[in-house]
Design goal:
- The protein is α/β, with parallel strands linked by helices.
- Helix content is 28%, strand content 15%.
- The chain contains ten helices and 13 strands.
- α5 packs parallel to α9.
Length: 341
């Protein structure tokens, strides 16, 4: 989306004889983001879109280019070819932006270019200012923050099923109900808001009695960054939430995603969940959310500062019950007035 000090690109899309307006873009945004915006306007999935006049050196540009690299003319009318899916089928089986080849790369120790950090902070600040959050349930005092991806994390969006819940990761509702005790919960997906709302309705997450979701974030809250190794990628910076809600920080926030690159701006706060794929084969075996429920409970109870955790080793985490209760007692002894429950 358009950032401060950028020359914003106002683009329209022509498809099936009609013209559609899309949000203004910054030249530093990627083709992948542009395609999600086009999907929001037209309903055509990014992997079905062919943008005929969005080219790099004469060839149709791939998702990882920035708009600046393509030298797009301001007010360009993008000519698009692509077929529409049934809305519900699309919600069940639509891919995330980017393709599986990129998604499967594990950016383990990859970092964003240091020289660009200030640009990224400016982009995050812009999101903090301009991204409108529709709060479904207010934050609760003293709670930690859990940020969850949808596709392959909570839901197998590539398999086909008659009912949405057949593609739901096993124990999803139990997991969310358990986490809700200690955490406010945010869902963040690299898709458009209407897909997120549709999926959460399908899965029964939106209306569940035993937990409440604080809000949803979509691709518009993401930013485009450059990595030396993999080029341009779109990521989910937690700074967008932390800037709007200062009670949350790296000390009390954890994010789950099946793609490590999504938390490249906050590598220490992210936990790479095993992707839930091939729901039909794995529905009876997958216990990832059960084990992660225990981890969330343990760290909420026994860890006062999530910066001290290494989520890569979450399965080996052993809470230090003794020293934690000793230090807690000490803290309570020295300040009897600040009684903790
Ligand atoms: Mg995912």
């Amino acid at each position: 989306m358009c950032d401060i000090n950028d020359s914003c690109l106002k683009l329209t899309v022509k498809w099936n004889g009609k013209e559609y307006d899309i949000p203004e873009f910054s030249p530093s945004d990627s083709v992948a983001m542009l395609k999600i915006a086009i999907e929001n306007a037209t309903g055509v999935r990014p992997d079905r879109q062919k943008l005929l006049n969005v080219k790099f050196q004469g060839k149709v540009a791939t998702d990882n280019y920035t708009l600046a690299e393509l030298n797009l003319k301001p007010n360009l009318k993008i000519m698009m070819m692509g077929s529409l899916e049934e809305a519900i089928q699309g919600a069940l089986a639509r891919p995330e932006c980017g393709d599986d080849v990129v998604n499967d790369l594990d950016l383990d120790d990859e970092e964003v270019d240091v020289e660009n950090q200030e640009i990224y902070l400016a982009k995050i600040n812009k999101r903090v200012r301009d991204y409108k959050i529709n709060v479904l349930n207010e934050p609760r005092p003293g709670k930690k923050l859990l940020v969850l991806d949808i596709d392959y994390t909570l839901f197998d969006h590539r398999s086909v099923a008659e009912k949405g819940y057949e593609l739901m990761r096993p124990f999803l509702h139990e997991f969310l109900a358990s986490a809700y005790v200690d955490y406010d919960i945010v869902i963040w997906s690299a898709t458009g808001m209407k897909w997120i709302e549709e999926k959460m309705k399908l899965l029964g997450v939106a209306t569940h009695q035993n937990y409440k979701i604080m809000f949803y974030l979509d691709y518009l809250a993401m930013i485009t960054v450059h990595t030396a190794k993999y080029g341009t990628i779109d990521v989910k910076p937690l700074g967008v939430i932390w800037g709007k809600y200062p009670q949350y920080s790296s000390k009390n926030t954890i994010m789950f995603d099946d793609i490590r690159r999504n938390f490249i701006m906050n590598p220490k706060s992210g936990l790479k969940i095993r992707p839930f794929r091939q729901a039909h084969l794995n529905r009876d075996k997958d216990r990832e959310l059960v084990h992660l429920s225990t981890y969330l409970l343990d760290i909420a109870q026994y860890c006062d500062d999530f910066d001290t955790l290494n989520h890569k080793k979450w399965e080996k985490y052993k809470p230090d019950r003794k020293s934690h209760s000793a230090s807690k007692r000490k803290a309570e002894d020295s300040s009897p007035s600040s009684h903790k429950e």
